[in-house]
Specification:
single chain, 16 strands
Length: about 525
Amino acid sequence: MFNKSWVNLNRATKEYMEAAWDFVKIVEKNDNYPLKIICPCKNCRNLYHQSVDDVYEHLVIKGMDPTYRVWVHHGEQPFEKQLDSELDGGDAFNLYMAGHMDSVNDDISVGHGDGLEKDFDKNLEDAETPLYTGCGKYTKLSAIVVLYKLKNLNGWTDTSFNDLLELLHDMLPANNVLLNSMYSAKRFLRKFDLKYQRIDACVNDCCLFRGEKAEMNVCPKYNVSRWKVDKHTKEVRVGEAAKILIYFPIIPRLKRMFRSKEMAESLRWHSTNKSTDGKMRHPVDTPAWESINARWPEFTLEPRNLRLGLAADGINPFRNLSSVYSCWPVMLVVYNLPPWLCMKDDNTLLTLLIPGPRQPGNDIDVYLEPLVEDLKKLWNKGVFAYDAYEKRSFNLKAMLLWTINDFPAYGNLAGCTTKGKMACPICGEDTCAKWLKNSMKFSYQHTRRFLPINHPFRSKKSWFNGEEERKGPPRILLGCDIAEHLNNFVNDFGKEKGKKRKRDAESEGMWKKKINFFFSAILGGQYNL
């Protein structure tokens, strides 16, 4: 869409000035002639809106921001080029390369390239076969992908989709290669690494039937059937799980990001674009990021190592505001990317779909098990990945920086109470709570304790609760202190139907569980929730 060669010209030349003027006029026209447009110069860096004349002046005087490669703020679609400009083989080629080229490169490096290249060529040729002789619009791959999309958009059942495939296969010319069953379609797509894991879960949220529990038919804690039970006949439908967790493995997807040349380059953005004026524009400018750099310098030395954020919250998938059914998606955000890419839908990874109808609550750790295992692997040992930008392999590591959630979900993930006498996660057991008898709820006072010791508001009695504030701010919770405090804490996951769990608030304090998910989140000594 844009000719970008002019940005490297001498800014004093006529060619540069004319190209810069053409650029701002194209952007102005595409945006329907607004009063101001986003300025991409070195100083503004797509953070400020300026008039067209000012943007042109900035580009001539200061130049284009050299880190702004994909002009997404001015009409260019991100990654509209091929994944690898040196390779051009169509949709099937790119899809297969994204899913399997890591293993191809690994095996070629140890001398097994011939067999893999033959398999690669065979699978690619199979995917690019025309749907039938003379068909120029659909291939074997594109036809099944389009049909799968229609299935999901219209909510077709597997049975109806299977019948449709059989009918279409019969209607098309006799030499067609359309797959005629759901089973064959799934086997075909499995070549492209488009898979997920279905993990059976206990209906009472106490365990997942995986690992040592993979062969069990009943929950070891509540003795509840793993399978669906008919409400009327009480017949157990063996093989039909009562509750299923969907897990999308993160390691293949993170490795696949480095298979795109442009994406692999963008994943280094954080290492060269830290703000120099003291302003916070990206997580790279935060104290937490600096703390990681100081605490784990060997992790920081590799700019391709990933820093992730985790987001979780409940939704009702049935398009209404009812809370009868609560499904919990868990997302990962990659903070290595520049600000205009890291929060895009395409770069946000859906990792878990925790089923309802009840929200997992304090038992969310049970469902996070497969994700935590992969995160630990990425942190402790790393995985072998291929970098398309540098055209060589490296050991990819990753760490979890923080979580993004509302206050109730914060309590579920962090393992601390967010209501009642110790509702403040900052003050903890030093929370100043007062029970209001008539209102039947807690009031949280003494907020003046956070003010400087000589602040005049501390001595104002009538303005507040009739008392002079003498307390200082609470001591910040340290990760090592929390680990020591919860060292002997025994987790009790699960919800028995019809019974409400009671906590011994006096003995447990503000903590509801031993927070294994966050024990490594000690940044500079402070517990980073």
